[in-house]
Every structure is written in C-alpha cells, then in structure tokens.
TrEMBL record, chain A:
Keywords associated with the record: Heme, Iron, Membrane, Metal-binding, Transmembrane, Transmembrane helix
Bilayer-spanning residue ranges: 12-33
Keyword Translocase: no
Pfam family, one: FixO
The keyword Heme belongs to this UniProt entry's keyword annotation: yes
Species per Swiss-Prot/TrEMBL record: Campylobacter canadensis
Domain of life of the native organism: Bacteria
Domain (Cytochrome c): residue spans on this chain: 47-230
Protein name in the entry: Cytochrome-c oxidase, cbb3-type subunit II
TrEMBL record, chain B:
Keyword Ribonucleoprotein: no
Family: Belongs to the CcoP / FixP family.
Pathway assigned in UniProt: Energy metabolism; oxidative phosphorylation
Residue runs in coiled coils: none
Transmembrane segments: 12-33, 62-80
Entry's localization field: Cell inner membrane
Keywords: Cell inner membrane, Cell membrane, Electron transport, Heme, Hydrogen ion transport, Ion transport, Iron, Membrane, Metal-binding, Oxidoreductase, Repeat, Respiratory chain, Transmembrane, Transmembrane helix, Transport
Name used for this protein in its record: Cytochrome c oxidase subunit III
Domain of life the protein comes from: Bacteria
Domain Cytochrome c: 116-193, 191-276
Cofactor field: heme c
Amino acid sequence: MFSWLEKNPFFFAVFVFVVIAYAGLVEILPAFAPNARPIENRKPYTALEIAGRQVYIKESCNACHSQLIRPFKAETDRYGEYSKSGEYAYDRPFLWGSKRTGPDLMRVGNYRTTDWHENHMKLPTSVVPNSIMPSYPHLFNKDADLQTAYAEALTVKKVFNVPYDEEGQTKLGSYEEALKMMVEQATPIVDAMNDASVKAAFEPCKKDPSASNCEIKEIVALIAYLNSLK
Amino acid sequence: MNWFNLSDNVNLLSIIGAIVIVLTVFIVAGNAFNQMKKNKSNAELAEHTWDGIGEYKNPLPLGWALMFVLLILFALWYFLIGYPLNKYSSIGEYNESVQEFNAKYDAKYSSLDDDKKIQMGERLFTLHCAPCHGLTGDGINGKAQDLTVWGSVDGILNTLEHGSTGLGYGEMPAGLVEGEDAKLIAEFIVKGNEKGKELFAENCASCHGDNAEGIEDVAPALNVYGKAEFIANVLRSGKDAPSDASVKVIGRMPSFIHALSANQIDALSRYVSTLSKE
C-alpha cells in the first residue's frame, strides 16, 4: 500500500506532516476563526492613542509589562477580567509581553489615573517605593509623533479594513480633523497634569490645533493610550 | 499497598486489563510459534523482493482486515465527531473555581470578627490603594488624599479651607466657614460636640441636610463622615472632578466597583476608617 512512499523519503515526509497536521487543524481552526474577530464594543485606537502606543513600543514597556490577563483567580483579582482574544483585534503588533517584571497593564485604565501616570513616569519610586523601573523624564520634553500615528491609522484603515469612520466607531477623518480630535482628547489629560512645561507647550493647541507651535508631548500621548486600556 | 487497592475502580480495571494483555500475548505468541513449527505455506512468492527476502502472497487474515478497516472508520469518526472538542474549557474551570472560592469566602467573611475584617482590609489596601495613597495612607506628599487626616477634625477643616468636589454632587466652594466656627463645626461632625450644632444648621444644613444625612444629588451625608459607609460610597463612585472645576482637587480616583466584591469593599472601608488619628 505505502511501498511507493517508502521509496520516496521526501513525499513520505510530506505525508507524515499532513497526517500530524490534521490533528492540529481539527483542534485549532474551528475556534480560531470566530475568536479572531473584534469583540463587541471594541473600537480601534484613536490617533492620539496610537501615538502613545508607539511611545510604549519605542520605550520597550512590553519588556517588563505584559498585556495579557490569564484566567486564574489570582490574576483576575488583581488586574480585572481575563483577556479575550477578540480584544486584540486592533493590536498591530500585539504587546502581550513575555515576562512580568512590573504588573500587567491590560486594564490599567480602570484603576490608575492621569496624575498617577505622570508621577510614575517622572519618578517611579515616588508612588511605588520598591519599583525598579527607571524614570522617563525625556517623555516630558519630546513631542509625540502625530503624523506617523495618523499615517499608521490611515494605513490599517486602507490595508486591513479597520473600521475607522464607520457608524459608531472611532473617527479618523483627514489629517486636520484628526489633529483637532487629538487636541480634544489631550485637553483633559493636560489639564489633569501638574507639569508646567507640558501645559505651556500645549497652550497654543487650544487656539489652533494645526499651529506650528502646538506641541503634544510624548507623555500626554502615552497617558492617553494607558487610559484607553480597559 | 495503596496501589493494590481493588475497591478503587480504576485500579481494578487496570489490573484486569494487565492480566488480559499478558494472557493474550502468551496465547497469540504460542499460536504463532505452533504455526511456525507445523505450517508449510503453499502460497506463491510475490515478485517483489527486498535484498533477496521475499514475501508470500497470502490473503489478508479476515479478522485482521476487518479490524483494520473498522479502526480507520473509528479514527475518522473520532477526529471529526467523537473527539471531545467542547468537553473541557479552561474558562469553565476558571468560572467554577471562582464560584467555589467566592462561596467559601463569603461564608467565612460573615463569621469573622471586626478585627479580622480590618486585617483583611489592610491587605486589600496594600494592593489596591497603596499605589496612590501610600502604604500608610498618608497620600505620599499630596499625591492623593491623606487618609490619616481625612475623617478627623483636621479633615473637615481641610475641606472647609479648600472646598470639595468630585463625588458626583455639586461643588463645595472653598472658605465657607473659617476660624473658630470652622473648628466647632468640625468637632460637631466628627465627635458630635453639641457646641457646633447651631453653626452647622446655619452654614451647612442647607446642602448637607438638617441632621447631616445628606441630600441626594446635592451633598454627601456627613453623619457617616470618617466611617466605613462613607468610604464604601467613595470606593463605589470614585472621585472624579470635572477638569474645569473651580475647586482645586488632587487628581482623579477611579471607581473600584469592578475590582472589589461587596465584602471586600466592606473590609477595606473598615480598615480605612481606622486610619485617621484622632
């Protein structure tokens, strides 16, 4: 029956692969398709949140912080509801992380606030005495890269059909409109912060979002992103 | 001899199975040896040889062939239909373990005495509150409400001096009452000192109610100020002032209603109410 296969090692290997892969297919695929869809009420990130997400990636926050709550009581007690795969539908790339040196951040927006994040980035030990996290003062001086953030949002909208501008979803619009919305989202965050230089840099934005001296600092974008994690 | 406990079904079945397997091996092997001694094959040799080793063209043994086909059919059925794809879920296991734990927890909680509940609250405080209020509840140099002062006479004086907002009621402006009067009112609220009663009626009752029981959507109850009930309310609602509030607030406190069960809120409130030093 299989003597032909026995004489052809290559095809034998292919055959073995097919036989073994079959088990994987029947176990994984049926559950995979529905779970990869965005969970209900999950909206794509706003442009400002994407800018903050890029800061998060740039500073490698994911090296110490995970974004994945496992379904164990000890984890859900501390971090909130366990993660579902549909919640990552708009995460490109995903930021699950692989090790927790610091706590999980999947739902940090539920139990930390703007002013806490500000203190924490400036000097982590000021709020968490045993923290070994370094401080990130440069986030308060550098401007967030809003253009790249908008470009990323536009790209995923066009290439992956992320539902920006659709009924009941996140608005994106043209770059000018997006800038206006970014300033809108940043306003309450800047108001809740104490750092004078961040406030001063943001002041021109309130009058004219597309002014050349309108600066949204990286820390503001990052806090917008962290507050959106719920 | 735990492993030889035959009253355990699994052990019994395993032992029986082992005996059956050993017996079968002996019978089948004996059969095969006998056949090798006696039988002479009169079948033709197949034309295919493997380095000089040939093979007789015997028909397939019927029993074996039947078994082979049945097993293939079984495998197809098992893979496509019979395999227990939906029999186990880790989420189901999680839900069961949480239910079990909560039932145990609630039963135990209702039997605890007050000191134990306060101890429990202390542990919850370390996890949920210490990141902003500090391990001792002192608010880490004004990063959050100083809970060692809040709930005491000084706490009321602070509120009168700076005003208050964010609990979902309106705004209370700063400096409504000052000096000696403020002290008397604070002592009336915290210690029930009768001297401040009239002052309270004049200055505070219009919003906080005649008996300091609070008025819905206007001002919180002050007859529970510094006590567990007040704290439980704050834990449930959070403290979120509008960003354009005229009163200076420290920051925003999120609601902890999703992180804590009713009993945990109770334990935590009891602990926090013990923090103020008076």
